[in-house]
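Collaboration report, partner site 2.

Our partner group contributed sequences for two proteins of shared interest, and the home lab folded both. The records are reproduced in the order in which they were received, starting with the first partner submission.
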Amino acid sequence: MKKQPKDSFEQGLDLILENEKIFQKFLMKMGYLKS
């Protein structure tokens, strides 16, 4: 069963959200973000 291909906008949005999570983790490791 194949997943329905997303349109490029939705795909880009997913990518941005994923990158933001990674970026926040990185910042917390560096000590810039206090959680």
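Second partner submission, folded after the first:
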Amino acid sequence: MSTNSKPSKGVIIAIAVIALMIIAYLIWAFALGDLMNGLNTGETEAVPMK
């Protein structure tokens, strides 16, 4: 039983880590997208296009 529980526990931990990484990446990408949009709008406002 112990030999069967170890791999399953490792798989669960691996899935949890991957899920957390994906969630963190989505949050980081969303925040970075807002930051880039803010910088882009700031640049367009600071430098008027002729």
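Feedback sent to the partner group on the second submission included the following. Residues 1-40 form one domain. The chain has a mean pLDDT of 78.
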